[in-house]
Amino acid sequence: MNDCTPIEGEVSHAKGVPANKKPLLGNNKPFGIVACGALAREIEEIAKLNRLQNIEIRYLPAKLHNSPNLIPQEVEKALEKLAGKCGQLFVAYGDCGTVGALDVVIKKFGATRLEGSHCYAFYAGVKDFEKLHDDEPGTFYLTDYLARQFDNLVYRPLGLDRHPQLLSEYFGNYTRLLYLSQSNDEKLDAKARDAAKRLNLRFEKIHTGFGSLEPAILTIKEKVK
Predict the structure, then answer these.
(1) CA neighbor of 101 nearest in space, from 73, 140, 137
(2) What domains does the chain contain, in order, with CATH numbers?
(3) Hey, how many other C-beta atoms are within 10 angstroms of the C-beta on 7?
(4) pLDDT score of 33 more than 90
(5) Which burial class, exposed, middle or buried, applies to 213 when counting CB atoms under 10 A from its CB (0-12, 13-18, 19+)?
(6) Under a CB-based contact definition with an 8 Å cutoff, are residues 35 and 92 in contact?
(7) For 121-177, how does the pLDDT look when each residue is reduced to its tens digit (9 = 90+)?
(8) What is the pLDDT of residues 47-87, one digit of tens each?
(9) What letter does residue 152 receive in the DSSP assignment?
(10) For residue 210, what are the contacts with CB-CB under 8 A and spacing of at least 6?
(11) Cβ proximity of 175 and 139 under 8 Å
């Protein structure tokens, strides 16, 4: 995984676990995961750190977040490919703007998903995120992925590189940029700080690590026999 921007349908088999290490997952039916490409780097790291084997992961393009109505149907296609061969199915998405439509798909396949409405919530913790939001509603959030992809996913698509006068229209009601970091990376810190400066927002950072992503994956794997 070189840039955390997997192509649609990319499959990872979580290989590379040392032969002398006993895998924590069963060796029968694999554990199937359908995940947003924005979480690829973190999921691969969780699999490595916990020596997870016998898992199959299908990453969907992060750009689906620009059209959340498409997320349920793309997740359904991916689950259909995994359902016949996997013992447990997990969807590494929040609701992500699908207004409950994703949960209908998940129920159909007997799968589970991440708690919360989006990645900010499951990284920060749902209750903690709600408090953060209530304390300062005018907050623009970044994760590691969004810090890396700020120009590609935020600045240029909004036309701010060509029309800087639009900044006040887009971000006039925002007061801070809150960076929810998964890693301790000075280069990403610098990117996030630079993003705040370019958006004319106060910068704050909270290190969340993997948040509830790691325990959610490990909880489901316990059901794999």
Answers:
(1) 73
(2) 10-119+211-221 (3.40.50), 126-207 (no CATH)
(3) 9
(4) yes
(5) buried
(6) yes
(7) 999 999 999 999 999 999 999 999 999 999 999 999 999 999 999 999 999 999 999
(8) 999 999 899 999 999 999 889 999 999 999 999 999 989 98
(9) I
(10) 42, 45, 46, 123, 182
(11) yes
Grouping H, G, I as helix, E, B as strand and the rest as coil, residue 138 is coil
Both structure tokens of 99: 């207004």
Q: Average pLDDT of 181-206?
A: 98
Residues in the chain: 225
HSE of 27 in the Cβ direction (CA atoms, 13 Å)?
2
Burial classification of residue 142, based on how many CB atoms lie within 10 Å of its CB (0-12 exposed, 13-18 middle, 19 or more buried): buried
Please state, in angstroms and rounded to a whole number, the distance separating the CA atoms of residues 112 and 88. 9
Nearest to 223 by CA among 25, 21, 33, 48: 25
Q: Are strands 55-60 and 10-12 parallel, antiparallel or unpaired?
A: antiparallel
CA atoms within 13 A on the CB side of 139: 18
Q: Which residue has the tokens 């240029």?
A: 156
Q: What is the mean pLDDT of residues 19-35?
A: 65
Q: In what order do the strands lie in the sheet with 55-60?
A: 10-12, 55-60, 31-36, 88-92, 112-113
Q: How far apart are the first and last CA of the chain?
A: 28
Q: Which residue shows structure tokens 């990872």? A: 12
